[in-house]
């Protein structure tokens, strides 16, 4: 029987691109039409579906790996953080699912923002399909819910790790901090080893030291300059230099103004290709939809390099074709 890697809330393909780099493929479940169009243009298999309404029975015995990046808007510092009011309801939903009771409909109706409860969907899929491994990603505020999920997974035989990773520590030109949950039924789990550091480290007898963080200027092949996060607005906003990694991208990066050279220097908006590179996608990744939708997809995606580092700790090596003897 063929078994598949299922990617919940698959978005435009951050996890899928990571799997492609590692010699694997997935099937993504995604509802947003622009993200589905991007995935199709990039060659990633997708089922357009509402994850919360998707019946898991058809997947039993067919899932080798489960990936999930639930929508983060209700918990994100960049959003209204309505999820903070719904944390207790999310914890209750996790306990109820673990006890065999699906109370999602009633709890969703009680939430300040119904999207908050999407964070429990990976556990529903995990309990019903029992994949070999699981990898979940969300904003730092969700760490207590991922820790709760991990405790439940340990009761059914999974080794788990939960913690916060900085994408810059894994070679991404962006200081993006995300909570990760890694679980496996076949091996001990551990976080990926950082390859980069804010302060580089010298090589030792035991191996190479960590390289310096990749700067925004280096990633985009730009002269030094800065970013103004409020674009052409005269007041408010923030400023950061391109001589370090970018700040975390969100959909609002569409209003970032890039200035290079000396004051006043050249000023222009950050473009799609540059945002794509800062999120560790190819410059010409086939983002679909309006400019606003493209920036939204980029900001919501997991950087493929960070995802690949996480997946490397749970995936079996891809089977390569055997060489034919001459």
What does this molecule look like?
- It is a single chain.
- Strand 1 (4-8), helix 1 (14-21) and strand 2 (27-30) form a beta-alpha-beta unit.
- The protein has helices at 14-21, 33-42, 83-98, 104-110, 121-129, 143-155, 216-220, 272-278, 291-300, 304-311, and strands at residues 4-8, 27-30, 45-48, 63-68, 133-138, 159-166, 174-175, 177-184, 196-197, 211-212, 225-228, 239-241, 246-247, 257-260, 266-269.
- The strands form four sheets. It has a seven-stranded mixed β-sheet, sandwiched between helices. It has a four-stranded antiparallel β-sheet with strand order 12-11-14-15, with no helix packed on it. The chain has a two-stranded parallel sheet with strand order 7-13.
- The chain is globular.
- It has 326 residues and is α/β, with parallel strands linked by helices.
- 29% of the residues lie in helices and 20% in strands.
- It has two domains: 4-197 and 301-311, 3-Layer(aba) Sandwich (Rossmann fold); 216-297, no CATH class.
